[in-house]
Specification:
Blueprint: H1 2-5, H2 13-60, H3 62-65, H4 82-91, H5 113-126, H6 140-143, H7 146-156, H8 158-161, E1 168-169, E2 175-176, H9 184-193, H10 208-223, H11 237-263
Antiparallel strand pairs: 1-2
Helix pairs in contact: 2-5, 4-5, 4-9, 7-10
């Protein structure tokens, strides 16, 4: 302090102090206005994304779901379904579809990732709902537990999707699709939105950590080799029994016919 105080009467002391004060004021003002500017830029970008999504919606979705997403005679309302439902349905190619009376099947998507994000943003703007996720956010490899996931899958999912996740038949001509080859974010989004006949597994029923464990088990089942030979689709005893009856009985009938012909 003594070193500084001896220069307080120097002729340049006042200009230097003034320069320091002005610089500090400028830096403080810049820091204070930076956050609002960033927020305004983010809000502007989101508004633009919503407008793009609305344009896509009016062209490709409004004929079934209504001009404002209110639903219609052949399609449900989209108000309150959230971005997660849109990302799951559109990014997996289930929507749009021509015949709404049929069950939506997974196929090549019509829209690219940017268009899906815009559609999701627009539908999310209609009313609050579950948000969409990215594959990077679903850190199942780090946070999931395979053994726990297998138990949860068997208790909550296997009755429809088959104990090996290969899918299965439901009532009234519907079916539960296979979960093999599905992106992690879409599995997560399906659990929180409950598409079609699937129930909604909210965080009170299955926690986010347990959802990651289910995904980890599914991914481990995908990579599991068929050590026993032909897996026959891993759809259970019906296929295996059909194969045994068809080949077994066919072989027995063939032997009986051969022996009868030989006896003559």
């Amino acid at each position: 302090m003594k070193f500084i105080s001896k220069y307080r009467r120097h002729k340049f002391a006042t200009p230097v102090l003034l320069l320091i004060a002005l610089s500090a004021l400028g830096f403080t003002f810049s820091a204070a206005t930076a956050a609002p500017n960033q927020s305004a830029a983010a809000a502007s970008a989101r508004s633009t994304l919503i407008e793009e999504g609305k344009e896509i919606f009016l062209k490709g979705c409004s004929s079934c779901h209504g001009l404002n997403g209110e639903g219609g005679a052949v399609a449900p309302s989209l108000i309150g379904v959230g971005a997660a439902s849109v990302d799951f349905q559109v990014a997996t190619g289930r929507m749009p579809m021509q015949d709404m009376s049929q069950q939506a099947m997974r196929k090549a998507p019509v829209y690219n990732d940017e268009e899906v994000a815009a559609l999701a943003a627009y539908v999310a703007s209609l009313a609050p709902g579950p948000r969409a996720y990215t594959n990077e956010e679903i850190e199942w490899e780090r946070d999931g537990n395979t053994a726990e996931g297998g138990e949860l899958f068997r208790n909550n999912c296997a009755m429809c999707h088959n104990f090996a996740g290969q899918g299965g038949a439901l009532t009234q001509g519907k079916y539960a699709p296979t979960v093999m080859g599905v992106k992690a974010r879409h599995i997560y989004e399906a659990m929180i939105t409950g598409p079609q006949a699937m129930p909604v597994f909210n965080d009170k029923i299955i926690t986010p950590e347990e959802k990651l464990s289910i995904i980890k088990w599914i991914k481990s089942a995908e990579a599991e080799p068929a050590l026993g030979g032909a897996s026959l689709g891993r759809v259970g005893p019906v296929t295996e029994g059909l194969l045994v009856w068809t080949l077994g009985l066919g072989l027995l009938i063939g032997i009986a016919v051969w022996l009868t012909a030989k006896a003559r």
